[in-house]
Amino acid sequence: MNTERTAAKAAPGTTAAVLTLTLLGALFSSPAGAAPRQGDFTATGVKIHESYSTTSWARGHGNPGDGYTWMGGQANEEAVPCPDGSVKDHWTYIHNNRTGVEGYVSDCFIKEY
Fold first, then answer.
1. Could you tell me the sign of the dihedral formed by the alpha carbons of 38, 43, 48, 49, in that order?
2. I want to staple 66 with a disulfide (CB 3.0 to 4.6 A). Which of 19, 30, 83, 98 is the partner?
3. How confident is the model at residue 41 (pLDDT cuts 50, 70, 90)?
4. pLDDT digits (tens, 9 = 90+) for 43-87
5. Within 10 A of 68 (CB to CB), how many other CB atoms are there?
6. What DSSP designation does 109 have?
7. Contacts for 103 with CB less than 8 Å, ≥ 6 apart
8. Other CB atoms within 10 A of residue 24 CB
């Protein structure tokens, strides 16, 4: 009978430990299979640069409707005057979904969905 009590007492502690580890895992890890961020170009002929500078080589161009996938690279570098009159120094590394070209684009010319 003592064995049964011990087993009964161990079960709630084990359940609490598993629950705690599960909750901690959910808080401190990204969900498996999370979709990468997506967006689109806001102007025609947006240059996709080799580096985060307007003077770097253009690998290709993006247009509205091409769509892009955010590839994780970002930099606060050269300030670029935007069509709306603002100035942004943030560049994002993207993958053009239509052409397959990857590179840096000023945040003036992209928007996230």
1. negative
2. 98
3. very high
4. 999 999 999 999 999 999 999 999 999 998 777 889 999 999 999
5. 28
6. G
7. 48, 49, 50, 58, 59, 60, 93, 94
8. 10
Token pair, residue 35, equals 């979709």
Tell me the CA distances in angstroms from 83 to 14, 70, 92, 99, one per residue in order. Answer: 59, 22, 18, 24
Which residues does 113 contact at the CB level (< 8 Å), separation at least 6? 37, 38, 39, 40
Residue in this structure with the two tokens 């806001």, named with its chain if needed = 42
Measured CA distances, 36 to 8, 46, 69, 75, 96 (Å): 45, 21, 7, 18, 13
Using a cut of 0.85, tell me whether the model's pTM lies above it.
no
